[in-house]
Amino acid sequence: MPPAASGPPPPAFGPAAVAVAEPTGPAVVQTDVGAKDGLAKCSRCGSTDIALNIATGHLRCNFCRFEQASPNALATYHLDGDPKLLTGLVVGSGSADIVPSTDEVLTFKCAACGAEVVIDTKSSMQARCHWCRNTLSMNQQIPNGAVPDMILPFKLSKETAVANISAFVGKRMTFAHPTFKAEFQPENVMGVYMPYMVVDVNAKIRLTGQGEHQTRSYTEKHGDNEERYYDADVYDVARAFDIYIDDLTVESSSERLDQTPSRNSNNIINAIMPFDPAESVTYNSNYLTGFASEKRDTNVTDLAPIVTTQSQDIARYQANNTLQFYDRGVRWDDEQIDLVGQRWVSAYLPVWLYSYYEKKSNGKSFVHYVAVNGRTGKTMGSVPINQLRLLLVSAVVEIIGIILGVIILLVA
After folding, report:
1. Rounded CA gap, 197 and 145, in Å?
2. Which among 31, 21, 24, 14 has a CA at the least distance from the CA of 85?
3. Residue 235 and residue 189: Cα distance in Å, rounded?
4. Which of the two ends of the chain, N or C, has the fewest CB atoms closer than 10 A to its terminal CB?
5. How many angstroms separate the CA atoms of 292 and 302, rounded?
6. What are phi and psi of 275, to 5 degrees?
7. Closest CA to 337 of 288, 364, 374, 304
């Protein structure tokens, strides 16, 4: 193999560099989505009984049936825009660090009758006044992680989600556990808003390593065996470019981030991505009516390593477009990423979720999920397996394979 040679100049990659300033400290952008008195009223009749109409994607008054779209004010609050222009760290108020000392139980005075109504933001964003039945909503941004910056409304109906889950499980019923077959009820699916961080990144990438370009291949005979050999030139390879990542989604629930296969099937949630966060609207708790939600319990600093790793993965993938010359592959020995600018926006993303608790013979339990993307309908899941049937079928297939092998040998 010839000695390492200096490779050809790296080809141009991506857009030209953008003049940027050095990143500064956290710049928390406060947002205010109104309804500070807890009442978000219908603009036509004044009712507070408002919910999402999945068919149109708009909020609908359940009293007079008037519909109106929630305004998307993210751009106004600098929580949206071209990642190329990002410098420093921009963090939405709903993405600010969780303050453990912040009281999660808030008391509102009902503007309709004057009664005091309590909202526990740990478990809910809405409550009904026990006197006048007005719905009070927690729409005001508070720095305890309870209220996200934006929400992506459900687009897929429950009926469609049930059909998707039934079809997914139906294809796997042959090897499903008999207890699961008897207890499977897809109509128990729940619509859940899952907490995510949506991140925009402006970064400078530098990759250095070695690549090989094949020059010839030939065969040599050694006794009764032949061996194939390959000759290749080795080059030092470097790539440096700017990368702009728009709407990178990262789970912000510590429980969902635990993807240990022996404990749960949380990885199912990632399998139904991507979402379309560009269609999100400014948070309004009326979108949560009739749905469940999980609360964010991680901070930007907790998730930053994940974003850095995924940004490097994206950079390597993009660099592959410039490496066709190195047909024997490239090994990157050093990867450097300089985060010029970041924008973190907390979001609720919609998932139809069917869960099943399997009690195993050893006394342990395992949670199986079948999840449906609440926007695209993409479905993925985990189904308890009938181990005995699977072993029997495997044994039969193996025996048939052995018999066929013996017959072929005898015929030959």
Report:
1. 11
2. 21
3. 55
4. C
5. 25
6. -95, 180
7. 304
